[in-house]
Amino acid sequence: MQIGELARSTGVKIETIRYYEREHLLPVPQRTDSNYRLYSPRHVEQLRFIRYCRGLDMSLEEVRVLIGALDTPTGSCLTVNVLLDEKIAEVDARVDELHQLQDQLRQLRGFCRQPDQGETCGILAELNRCTENKKPVI
Fold first, then answer.
1. Rounded mean pLDDT of the chain?
2. CATH code, 7
């Protein structure tokens, strides 16, 4: 299949497919006599794999590691476990940051005592105070 069909069948944009080729995440496709790329079912599988990993917020380097492990089925999955453990720790840290942000927003929301009077809006006053003092809301 040609690149347009590959893009349609995987939901990956043509520019992204070419980028993945340049990054060596996809095997080099065969070429026709007219120099068109010809993609195989393996390309479809690999693109779907990459797309799914990217959906799990994996970086291209992490995807590269996973593809390497996938291409070496007799190897240990220790590398894959370490990668996933690191990704889980990253997500945990981001969740903690989001909880802190949520707490800040809730605290800020508590500054509104009279929601129908904009000129005395406690939220805006607190935001302005924090901006002047260059301090976080909490």
1. 90
2. 1.10.1660.10
| Structural domain of 41 | 3-56
Query: Alpha-carbon distance 58 to 66, whole Å?
Result: 10
Q: If pLDDT is split at 50, 70 and 90, which confidence band does 25 have?
A: very high
Residue with tokens 């935001």: 127
What is each CA distance from 7 to 14, 77, 108, in whole angstroms? 6, 30, 46
Q: For 7-11, 28-32, 71-75, which range has the lowest pLDDT when averaged over its residues? A: 71-75
Residue pair 63/25 in contact (Cβ under 8 Å)? The answer is yes
Six token digits for residue 95: 């969740």
- Look at residue 79 and tell me if it is in a domain: no
Question: What backbone phi and psi angles, to 5 degrees, belong to 134?
Answer: 55, 40
C-alpha closest to that of 3 among 32, 28, 39: 39
* Chain segment 109-126, per-residue pLDDT in tens: 988 877 676 567 888 888
Single-letter code of the amino acid located at 125: A
In this model, does residue 106 exceed pLDDT 70?
yes
C-alpha Rg value of the chain to the nearest Å: 24
